[in-house]
Amino acid sequence: HLVESGGGLVQPGGSLRLSCIASGFNFSARVMGWARQAPGKRLEWVGHVYRDSTTYYSESVRGRFTISRDNAKNMLYLQMDSLKSEDTGVYYCAPETDAGNSRPGDYWGQGTQVTVSS
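Request: output the structure for the sequence above.
Response:
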């Protein structure tokens, strides 16, 4: 079970921090990440964090987004800085094994809406 929060409306250049709480599986053993879906577009994998906290990011967000995790709390985070209008979309947390999905998985959460607009 995955529940995302922290989305909202932000101006270009602004920042947001998304959170995801996981339950029902061994969170600390999984590589976890974030995906996003803009209106009318395919699901895009944003990046993920390994069990040792090393990270991978897609080229579109590298240098602006930071993924972190707190295994003691079963929490995943996405710090988004220097936001652009093209970052608008619904953001989901998911296991890295779903990185190739074309749409949100059946057991994913509802996601959290991020809108970047002036």
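The chain has a mean pLDDT of 96.
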